[in-house]
Amino acid sequence: MEFTTKQIFTVLRTVKHPQQNKDIISLGMVQELTIEGNNVGFTLVFQSDADKMAEPIRKACVQALEKEFGDQIVIRGNIKLKYLKKEDDYSAMKGVKNIIAVASGKGGVGKSTVAVNLAVALANTGAKVALLDADIYGPSVPKMLNIEGERPQVVNENGQELIVPIEKYGLKTLSIGFFVNPDDALIWRGAMATGAIKQLLLQGKWGEIDYMVVDLPPGTGDIHLTIVQTVPVSGGIMVSTPQEMALADVKKAMSMFKQPTIKIPILGVVENMAWFTPEELPDNKYYLFGEGGAKKYAEENGLALLGQIPIVKGVMDGGEKGVPVAANPDSIMGKEFVKLAANVIEAVKKRNSELPPTQMVSITRK
Ligand SMILES: Nc1ncnc2c1ncn2[C@@H]1O[C@H](COP(=O)(O)OP(=O)(O)OP(=O)(O)O)[C@@H](O)[C@H]1O
Ligand SMILES: [Mg+2]
Question: Are 230 and 99 in contact (CB under 8 A)?
Answer without folding.
Answer: no
